[in-house]
Amino acid sequence: MILVVVDAAEADRVSEGLRAGIGLGLRGDDVVVVLTGPAAGFSQSDDPRIVRALRTLGELRRPARVVDEAELAGLLVAARAIETWSSARVEVRRLRIGDREIEVDGRRFRAGGRAIDAAEVVAQILGSDGPIVVR
């Protein structure tokens, strides 16, 4: 399953994340789109971009849903790929999976105190038939 996590506080970022969820599923992949954190409040938005994206996801039988941290943690572990949409103004973005934290800072990810080049991670993902574990 591909998990799209929308955790942004701005309507334009939320609508982009929702549209990404639509696009990722067009090849027939199993895609789950969730709204969490500040984005959860947009589940009842009257912004036409968000309304349209939510309606389209529903029509495609993969509606976006609001999740809390506990449910999100389970989805993160189950996902084979994760795409996150957070606030554009956040200087450092962090994604926590269990007790592991990946800090996204430009092109570098830090996991367990070690810097990892994003290009290297992408190359591994594209060349893999299974999960990629960053240690």
Structure summarized in a few sentences:
The protein has 135 residues and is an alpha/beta fold. It is built from 4 helices and 8 strands. Helix 1 runs parallel beside helix 2.
Question: Could you name the key traits of this structure?
Answer:
135 residues, alpha/beta, Hypothetical Protein Ychn, Chain: A, 2 domains, 4-stranded parallel sheet, 4-stranded antiparallel sheet, 4 helices
Number of domains: 2
N-to-C terminal Cα separation, in Å? 22 Å
CATH topology of the largest domain: Hypothetical Protein Ychn, Chain: A
* Residues in β-strands, percent: 25-35%
Estimated radius of gyration:
15 Å
Sheet with the most strands, sense and barrel status: 4 strands, parallel
* pLDDT < 50 stretches: 105-111
What is the global morphology?
A: globular
Roughly how much helix do the residues carry, as a percent range? 25-40%
Helix run count: 4
What integer is the average pLDDT? Answer: 78
Q: Find the count of extended strands (DSSP E, 2+ residues).
A: 8
